[in-house]
Amino acid sequence: MKKFLLLILLLTGIKCTYAQSTHIKFDHFTVKDGLPERQIRFIKQDNEGYIWVGTQNGLLRYDGYKPKVYRFGVDKDSYYQTCSSESMIIDNNNTIWVSTFGNGLFRYDRSADKFIQYKYPQQLGKKTTLVQVLSATDSNNNLWSFNRTFPRTHIELIKFNQDKQKFEYFNRDQKGSHYLEPQDCYYISKTVGGTIWLGTSNGLYSYDQQADQYQLYPLEATRHDTITNIYEPPSEKGILWLNKVDKQSRKFSILRLDTRTKTVKYFSHETDTHLNKGNDTINAVFEDSKHRLWFATPKGLLFFDRKTAEFTNYQTADTVKAEDKDEIHSINEAKNGTLWLTGSKFILNFDPVTKRFQRYKAIKDDPTSLNGEYIRSLLTDRFGSLFVVVGGGGMDKNNALTSAFTTYTQDKNNPHGYPGGETSQIISTNDGYVLFTNANGVYKWKPGSDSFQQIFKPAKSSDIPYGIAYGGKSLLYFLGTQSGFQEYNPETGKLHIFVHDSKDSSSISSNSLEKIMRDHLGIVWIGTDDQGICSFDPATRKFTRYPFIVNNGSLVSGDKLDDQRVISIFEDREGTVWVGTNLGGLNRFDRKTGKFKSYLTDGKMRAFSVVSICQSRDGMLWIGTYLNGAFEFNPKTGHFIKNFNEDNGLLFNSTNAINEDSRGNIWISSERGSSLINPKDMSVKNFPMATFTGKTVNSHINNITLAGDLLVMDTYESISCFNSNDLTANPYPPAVHIEKIAYSDPHAATDSATVLQTYGSHGIELPHNQNRVTFNYVALHFTDPSQNKYTYMLEGYDKHWIQAGTQRSVTYTNLSPGTYTFRVKASNSDGVWNNDGASFVVIVDSPLWMRWWAWVIYVIVFAAAIYGFIAYRSRQLRMENQELEEKVN
Fold it and tell me: Across-strand partners of 250?
């Protein structure tokens, strides 16, 4: 049944009309993610910023968080019992209308969050309405659509009169003003001046609103021939670009019609040497933001130069051999000024400045490529995101974040590809390469390339190298799980192993090793697991040992290293060696005295268990710890400046590595991913593991290494590199809405609440006992919705703005009588704020016995009581005086 329905729908379908990486990765939104059905009929964005997706099983509204599906009730008299959404249009009043397959027209009541049905006429002679494709609204807000009827197979025109709530047909069967001669209608367009133009099998027609009829345009060039495309450039009022098919010769041609002068100019491959036969057919016309005019054709992209009145044809230069490799169906403009073009099995990004194309299509075994072979449509949204509808594959969205990262995974069929396995250490060399160690040995790699060269393979599979230091072109130093400290010459293949000798104080202090680092003098520093740190001088071939303490909780180590286990070693730009220990903290080594100074605590902050160290361009040290997050440290004053942890934005308190990128940002890796700290404003941006791997995996990032302009990171099953310049912030703030409020009696026995959709309303007045109020709000921005941030304030209650993080609702209980204004602001995932935000007024009434008029009554009653009491006492006194006088007399 599903296949039969899809076939019917396809047969009845009507054709209507910031810096980024060159490699784009896509996220997939399918039935598993909430899509009601995998065949998408349309995708649009409304004026509020929501994405609407029509499917064969209902309509979906997408806000980036939780999809909401509207399944229209099926009319029992409809020809097909489906709730397939076919098309959508937004009228002059910003109202959404949706047409369905045989089930009527639906109007969205946003204030009630529901759709209202208008049934298709069931009988019109012998025809039954199947589907409408909404195409235009006129100045009277009437809806114009193409209509398919059954059993007739021609395409005709229908108008929905909103005032009369009535469907009105325009075809050969009508009489009077609604009579329309052409048998088929192909294209409808509303121009800037408000005129409705109709392309038909019998020429070009325009709609006369006063006469309520279509009139054949009085120009011989457009009479009787088929018009399949109509476009008026926004900057050229009165100029129409048409695609015409000559009825006699069946040849296509491009027409430029000036409706002001009623003159026409022809373009075709027979008259214009810049065109070929495939260019005569127009699939779409588009004027970009710089008023450049573009044409989508079966043989490439055309640019029309208005000054010379000549076309230029642009075609792809890649090696794709498909016949339709240059066929373009639609044109959309991205926020950065490039053009997105759709083909049957691909999408293209075209840069009008460089004149270069970039092709994207489905690639086998690449989960980040497009999710299907056939492209249905494309949407570039107002916030800079790209949505692609893939035939049978649901909806794809570009992931601007993951697109910046190039990730390499193991390919067993490629002997020179990434070898796989967990990487222990990565270091950079002076020639732009990196060296890394894993279970298979030591590898050399140029970040960005696909070739990995193994330069050392251990003699024993159990003797895995894990620490590495670069000694120049002819020497490598590394640590083995069994062999300890080793010196290796890649040119000669000579390997020398150094082991601990208890009788020789100039030998290495231990065979249990942790870290290795070569300083600017050529001295190799080796951190051990149980004997502190020692250094190796390649010139003398001897080791020097340094004093340490076995830390059992001591905060004072004197002039010794503050623990026996070394877990990080770093040399700053001044040549000072810094050592991080396991049960201690940060230590500075004095080369002159051979002594250490511990900065385990400075009296205010304690950086315990220092796993990584780096230096920023301003001279500050950045310290990554195992449990307490990251610290900024001033080496001149010897004090910690700030601690970053989960409470102030860090992804995870347990860090693995820390480094600075070419832009001065600090990167901190952990088992949950990486965090970026901008030293200019100390803001934190997080990159979960899925950013690098494209999926959630049980892995972590061990190393962060800078190689030229590229940062290199590793996970258990992959290695990634990226240029931080590709991570420029999305500059577009989100749209912010207070979607609904819920109010109830906080003392009620049940939790039932009344819900109000706030669209079209700016406030509400509530009874005194309905003073438990919940506000639900949303920021519409689709780059990374989970990282959109919020701040709110209830004026009249809160004294300052509340940082809500990613929380999208807040509840206030027992609000006192008064007037409150709830305000909310939001930022996109890059911290760009919409400071205008949204607001909603709530008035909590006083109870009846606390109203002003109740107080007036209370005063009157009290005054009357006082007056009555005084009068009573006065009478009593008079009576007593009278009795007294009578007794005296």
Answer: none
3-class secondary structure, 6 = helix
Residues 6+ apart with CB under 8 A from 428: 434, 435, 705, 706, 707, 708, 712
The answer to whether the CB of 588 falls within 8 A of the CB of 597 is: yes
> For every residue of 143-186, which 3-state class applies, written as one string?
EEEEEEEECCCCEEEEEEECCCCEEEEEECCCCHHHECCCCCEE
Instruction: Report the distance separating Cα 835 and Cα 429, nearest Å.
Output: 46
Contact assessment for residue 67 and residue 33, using Cβ atoms and an 8 Å cutoff? yes
8 A C-beta contact, residue 317 and residue 357:
yes
Q: Residue 774 is encoded by which pair of tokens?
A: 């919940």
pTM of the prediction? 0.84
Enter the DSSP assignment of 437: E
What tokens does 746 get? Answer: 């906080």
Cα 675 to Cα 684: distance, rounded to the nearest angstrom: 7
pLDDT at 817 over 50: yes
Q: What is the C-alpha separation between 586 and 178, in angstroms, rounded?
A: 86
Residue 563: its pLDDT value, please? 95
Digit-coded pLDDT (tens) for 452-478: 999 998 888 778 888 999 987 678 988
Question: Tens of pLDDT along 115-141?
Answer: 999 987 764 444 555 667 889 999 899
CA dihedral 735, 737, 739, 743 (to 10 degrees): 160
| Predicted confidence (pLDDT) at residue 10 exceeds the cutoff of 60 | no
pLDDT of residue 780: 97
Q: In the chain, what percentage of residues exceed pLDDT 90?
A: 61
Band of the pLDDT at 538, cuts 50, 70, 90? very high
> Could you tell me if 542 and 506 are in contact, meaning their C-beta atoms sit under 8 angstroms apart?
yes
CB atoms within 10 A of CB 330: 17
- Run of H or E including 868: helix 852-888
Residue the block writes with tokens 């006469």: 211
Q: What are the tens digits of pLDDT across the range 734-759?
A: 999 999 999 998 877 677 889 999 99
Strands in 490-554 per DSSP E: 494-498, 513-518, 524-528, 533-537, 542-545
Nearest to 409 by CA among 455, 458, 450: 450
Q: 3-state class of 27 per DSSP?
A: strand
For residue 581, the model assigns a pLDDT of 97
- What is the C-alpha separation between 82 and 225, in angstroms, rounded? 37
Beta bridge partners of 231: 241
Q: What is the pLDDT of residue 78?
A: 54
What are the structure tokens assigned to 371, written together?
Answer: 């999710």
Mean of the pLDDT values across residues 265-269? 92
Helices (H) and strands (E) in the chain, counts: 4, 69
Q: Which two tokens stand for residue 800?
A: 């300052």
Closest CA to 655 of 674, 641, 640: 674
* All residues at 6 or more sequence positions from 145 whose CB lies less than 8 Å from its CB, including other chains: 87, 99, 132, 133, 134, 135, 157, 158, 159, 160
Regarding predicted confidence, which is higher, 82 or 717? 717
Q: Which of 187, 244, 196, 191 is nearest to 221 (CA)?
A: 244
Cα distances (Å, whole numbers) of residue 411 to 95, 366, 404, 420, 777: 52, 12, 21, 8, 46
SS (H, E, C) 651-662: CCCCEEEEEECC
Task: List pLDDT tens digits, range 542-587.
Answer: 999 999 999 988 778 889 999 999 999 999 999 999 999 999 999 9
CA-CA distance, 356 to 360, in Å (whole number)? 13
Q: Which amino acid is at 143?
A: L
Quote the mean pLDDT of the chain: 88
- What is the DSSP track for 821-851? EEEEEEE-TT--EEEEEEEEEEEEPPPGGGS
Q: Which amino acid is at 750?
A: T
